[in-house]
Write a structure and sequence with these properties.
The complex is a heterodimer of chains A (471) and B (216). With 471 residues, chain A is α/β, with parallel strands linked by helices. Chain A is 32% helix and 17% strand. In chain B, the strands form two sheets. Chain B has a four-stranded antiparallel β-sheet with strand order 1-6-7-8. Chain B has a four-stranded parallel β-sheet with strand order 2-3-4-5. Classes of the chains: A alpha/beta (471), B alpha/beta (216).
Chain lengths: 471, 216
């Protein structure tokens, strides 16, 4: 029996013509813009007098990368050199071309991959691009959402289409139930530890299986977000009732229109007989919280584990990479991760700064204080999440524990708060632990928000299961 | 339109390790220039300078050492250009003067950003990458010859020939200077018809938006 995958259904609906090497022109339905990659093309069009081809309902723009997250920020405040000009320029271009721009104190403001879904902008079965590598985050809605560079942002504005080389298909089937204090972030980190950062080079990933079906949209977005670290720009999850409930709440259309859309979207999922070029499976039943020890997300072990010895790391290239990582991270082979003291703790980013993430962290922080000397910061993923968290009193929990409670933005996931963590060791709910990513000499340990919160309390890398419910 | 490239003989910079990421190629602190040109001095800025923004060259960094300071080819490992999709990683390489990236494999978005900007991303085997880096280390002055038409390269005029992989479609773009944007222009009527058919069948595609100018 044959069948069609979710990916193939979206591809064929949007394909125009055939080009060599398995390429096609794909109609692009929607695009999100941020001030770093999104502004160049609009500015060029302003200068040349060219009109963009995309309608206003196809664009959602927000300044997230360079935007200050200070509680008293102004509309163009930035700690990055040149940042204020880029923010102002994006805002002005959107005004000129009639595109929706979310100003920083609007509830619609946030990290582009967090705010886009909240505003009902991401629809199943569509093609979607953004000049940002974590665009695959919103593949969790069954949209073929992928990263492009600034020049391709311009091409989409001009043509409503892109030439795309058809990727091979990979299904990652996840089974089992997550234990207490284990999250989809831990699943993603485990996949990276087992299969490496080149796992999906040349592939589109579809996450499937009973575990995925049981996850909230937020947890699904975390999983798809981390696909960017697995060597691909494409991740998908089939839309189901969980997806549709989210869309009923968020998409700005009449209830009749939404129900008609849902009827259509129900047919999008991969057919039972469909085959993939590659299949991978992971049972999460015995999974423990994960923490990265090195400078690539595949440098990850369980929080109860030890830093591996590079000598055991396969080929010469991998071994050299591990040795370099240990020097940068100032760690020793076989050192227990749970013994490592941290200087700072960060909860933020398009990976893990949604409401469920803040709740998980607050559950651990409640009634406790951050360890002396640890700098702790929370930047909610959007202003809407920030407001919801404040309604629930989560901000009070964070503040009482000693966390800074800031406004939404990409913040120090990419070192955008200035070099506040130079040479410090940070445990972070983000996606990349590259050298100098979070600041000069900053040593990043990736983990879930719960693990970040637990580590902030004790001042060393800590298994959140040791603190949960213990107070 | 990028400058076409078919053949090149130039000094090559060996940086042979895996997962060299775009944060390293162009760090965040350099990443807020308002123009798509003039990014050369931001290349490797996190490692190339003694004082960060002051841009005083660090003599210990290989790019600051002759003859590597005039390299137009880079030799690296697997998953080159991983991480952020920032096109400025390709702009920084291009504006410094690089024309060819030889690596064991490439991040997809980075590879596309190279093609768009006339940089040739050429895939070589791990054995060849190691051999090439060792040869360059012994004799950097001789330079590396790259020929996109024949799909071969060699260290020095009489060095051993090595093969590289480049998708023929990308090869044709690089050698002609033609862009995908041009090709899409020819397909525009078909693209518009398909988009109209999609919106007709799925009117929810028009949800949201502002009551601003509507161009289509």
């Amino acid at each position: 029996m044959s069948g069609t995958t979710l990916f193939e259904k979206i591809w064929s609906a949007h394909q125009v013509g055939e080009l060599p090497g398995g390429r096609a022109a794909l109609v692009i339905d929607r695009m999100t813009l941020h001030e770093l990659s999104g502004g160049y093309a609009l500015r060029d069009m302003e200068t040349s007098g060219e009109r963009p081809h995309l309608r206003s309902d196809q664009i959602f723009a927000v300044a997230d990368h360079a935007m200050s997250t200070a509680p008293d920020r102004g509309p163009h405040d930035s700690l990055s050199p040149g940042g204020s000009a880029m923010i102002a320029s994006l805002e002005q271009s959107c005004r000129i071309f009639g595109y929706r721009y979310a100003p920083p104190d609007d509830e619609a403001h946030g990290i582009v991959h967090v705010a886009g879904p909240e505003q009902g902008f991401i629809l199943p079965g569509t093609t979607h691009v953004c000049g940002d590598s974590h665009t695959c985050t919103v593949g969790a809605f069954g949209a073929l959402a992928f990263a492009v560079g600034s020049t391709e942002v311009a091409t989409v504005l001009r043509r409503s289409a892109l030439i795309v080389q058809r990727p091979k298909t990979m299904r990652i089937t996840l089974t089992g139930q997550l234990g207490p204090q284990v999250f989809s972030k831990d699943v993603a980190l485990r996949l990276l530890a087992e299969h490496g950062v080149r796992l999906a080079l040349g592939y589109v990933i579809e996450f499937a299986g009973p575990l995925v079906e049981s996850l909230s949209m937020e947890a699904r977005m975390t999983l798809c977000n981390m696909a960017a670290e697995m060597g691909t720009r494409y991740a998908l999850i089939a839309p189901d009732d969980t997806t549709f409930d989210y869309l009923r709440r968020t998409v700005p259309a009449s209830p009749e229109m939404i129900e008609a859309a849902i009827l259509s979207w129900r047919g999008l999922g991969t057919d039972p007989g469909a085959t993939f070029d590659r299949e991978i499976a992971l049972d999460v039943g015995s999974l423990v919280p994960q923490v990265s020890w090195g400078t690539t997300p595949q440098h990850t072990v369980g929080v109860d584990g030890s830093v591996p010895d590079p000598v055991a790391a396969g080929d010469a290239g991998t071994q050299a990479g591990a040795e370099r990582a240990l020097r940068y991270m100032r760690l020793q082979p076989d050192q227990k991760l749970a013994s490592v003291p941290i200087d700072a703790a960060f909860i933020g980013s398009c990976t893990n700064a949604r409401l469920s993430d803040l709740r998980a962290a607050a559950a651990i922080l409640k009634g406790r204080k951050v360890a002396a000397g640890v700098r702790a910061m929370c930047t909610p993923g959007s202003m809407k999440i920030r407001a919801q968290a404040e309604t629930e009193g989560l901000d009070a929990v964070f503040k009482a524990a000693g966390f800074e409670w800031r406004k939404a933005g990409c913040s120090n996931c990419a070192g955008r708060e200035g070099p506040i963590w130079a040479d410090l060791r940070v445990i972070s709910s983000t996606n990349r632990n590259f050298e100098n990513r979070q600041g000069p000499g900053t040593r990043t340990h990736l983990a879930s928000p719960a693990t970040v919160a637990a580590s902030a309390i004790t001042g060393r890398i800590t298994d959140p299961r040791s603190l949960a419910g213990a107070i | 339109m990028p400058n076409p490239i078919t053949r090149l003989h130039a000094v090559a910079l060996p940086l042979l390790r895996d997962n060299l990421d775009t944060d390293e190629l162009i760090p965040v602190s350099e990443n807020t220039r308002s123009s798509m040109s003039g990014w050369g001095d931001g290349l490797f800025a996190g490692r190339r300078y003694l004082d960060g923004a002051g841009h005083t060259p660090d003599p210990g960094f290989i790019l600051n050492q002759a003859p590597y300071d005039r390299a137009e080819i880079i030799v690296s490992g697997g998953n080159f250009g991983c991480g952020s999709s920032r096109e400025s990683a390709a702009w920084a390489l291009r504006d410094y003067g690089f024309k060819v990236v030889l690596a064991i494999s490439f991040n997809e978005t980075f590879k596309r950003n190279c093609i768009i900007n006339g940089l040739a991303p050429l895939a070589i085997s791990r054995d060849d990458a190691e051999r090439l880096a060792a040869n360059i280390g012994r004799d950097p002055q001789t330079g590396v010859f790259v020929d996109l038409e024949s799909g071969t390269l060699r260290h020095g005029e009489h060095g051993t020939e090595m093969k590289f992989q480049l998708d023929p479609f990308y090869g044709a773009l690089l050698m002609s200077g033609r862009t995908e944007d041009d090709m899409l222009g020819a397909l525009q009527p078909d693209i518009d018809r398909r988009r109209e058919a999609l919106v007709g069948a799925e009117p929810w595609l028009r949800s949201g938006g502002l009551a601003g100018p509507q161009s289509l």
